[in-house]
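for the writeup, i need someone to sanity check this before i put it in the appendix. the sequnce is what the collaborator sent (i think, or maybe the updated version? ugh). structure was predicted straight from it, no edits. if anything looks off just tell me and ill rerun, i have time this weekend
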Amino acid sequence: MSGIFRVFYNGFAAMAIGPFFFAPMVLAVMAGVITLLAGCAVLTRRVSPQFDRWPWLVMLLVLASARLGFVIRHWDSFLTEPWRIFYFWQGGFDIGWAIAAAVVSLVLLQGLRRERLAGRCLAWWPR
């Protein structure tokens, strides 16, 4: 393979951007994070300042749960060296857990917003 993609001796494909090599899944995650943060920056300026905080919370929950899913799937490997659980830079994320965490966190954050709105409405309700 020529061009920006390289295939290494073990069959691992990576994309070269300058001196850095990225796996296709890592590039997809980076593109998703950049899109999320850019979209929320636009929404913060145009709609409401509430969009400033929640993308960071969702992103942290998604990354932590994706790593947790990978660790659970490969528990026998991490059992011998448990400190490797925190080696995020070595890769190892489960996309299924990431998607599930994104959906759950967005549903929970939407529910919290409705609760606050309901609390404000009840606070102003004439007695």
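Residues 13 and 125 are 61 Å apart (CA to CA). The two ends are 73 Å apart (CA to CA).
thx in advance!!
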